[in-house]
């Protein structure tokens, strides 16, 4: 399968011409965990905004039947009542570490709603929580928390280490959704949902990073000490979605 650089308009134009899609589900992103977001705020903002801009504009030009934009929970304000409801999306600034990425993705919601109003483009916007599962990114420089912890524990176990370091206090909470469950949600939304309002996709429960770490420690059999590096950020205090609109 040919690869395309979606940040470049000529590549996007060529992709549409070759594949001639009737529906596009836009999942491509430059994304990572807290560390990657701190190191690449400009790149993450530019790349994610550029990809969406080019893909949505080309969708308009070719008369695409439907465009499905997958957003991010990072778009929500830092301090949002839990569980997060879609109506709260614009009621504050995102958590600072993730703000460039989250705002770039959120801007595409505005673009889709504007294109629906002016051009009649059928675009929908979905907001999944943190995902995990087969095919995850285990690169320590850019992975999210579950694959990052799995790799840390496995490597520490293999090396016979007596401790591992974990970022933050462990008090922050996150909601996680298995990737295949998310794929089913995306499929159903593509088939059945045609409204301009964003829709949350989640599992319906949260877990603290400390409890998650202990769970992965047990599953990997690591018996060493956990050292919490409180000089590193926790990120957003809590993340858990209200999924009643999706239901």
TrEMBL record:
Q: Does the keyword Electron transport apply?
A: no
Q: Which residues form a coiled coil?
A: none
Q: Where is the NAD-dependent epimerase/dehydratase domain?
A: 2-202
Keywords, in A-Z order = Isomerase, NADP, Oxidoreductase
Q: Name one GO molecular function term.
A: isomerase activity
**A Pfam family matched by this chain, by name?**
Epimerase
Q: Which Gene3D superfamilies match?
A: NAD(P)-binding Rossmann-like Domain (3.40.50.720), UDP-galactose 4-epimerase, domain 1 (3.90.25.10)
Spell out the CDD domains in the cross-references. GDP_FS_SDR_e
Entry similarity comment: Belongs to the NAD(P)-dependent epimerase/dehydratase family. Fucose synthase subfamily.
Record-linked PANTHER family:
GDP-L-FUCOSE SYNTHASE
UniProt protein name: NAD-dependent epimerase/dehydratase domain-containing protein
User: What is the organism field in this record?
Assistant: marine sediment metagenome
């Amino acid at each position: 399968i040919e690869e395309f650089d979606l940040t470049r308009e000529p590549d996007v134009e060529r992709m549409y011409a070759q594949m001639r899609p009737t529906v596009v589900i836009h999942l491509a992103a430059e994304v990572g965990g807290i560390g990657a977001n701190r190191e690449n705020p400009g790149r993450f903002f530019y790349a994610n905004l550029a990809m969406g801009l080019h893909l949505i504009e080309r969708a308009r030009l070719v008369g695409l039947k439907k465009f499905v934009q997958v957003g991010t929970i990072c778009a929500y304000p830092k301090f949002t009542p839990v569980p997060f409801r879609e109506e709260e999306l614009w009621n504050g600034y995102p958590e600072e570490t993730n703000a460039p990425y989250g705002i770039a993705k959120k801007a595409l919601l505005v673009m889709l709603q504007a294109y629906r109003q002016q051009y009649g483009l059928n675009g929908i916007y979905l907001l999944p929580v943190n995902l995990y599962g087969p095919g995850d990114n285990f690169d320590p420089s850019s992975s999210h928390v579950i694959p990052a912890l799995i790799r840390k524990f496995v490597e520490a176990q293999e090396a016979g280490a007596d401790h591992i370091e974990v970022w933050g206090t462990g008090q922050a909470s996150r909601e996680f959704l298995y990737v295949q469950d998310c794929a089913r949600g995306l499929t159903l939304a593509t088939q059945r949902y045609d409204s301009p309002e964003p829709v949350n996709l989640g599992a319906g429960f949260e877990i603290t990073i400390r409890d998650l770490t202990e769970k992965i420690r047990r599953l990997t059999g690591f018996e060493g000490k956990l050292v919490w590096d409180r000089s590193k950020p926790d990120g957003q205090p809590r993340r858990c979605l209200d999924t009643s609109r999706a239901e």
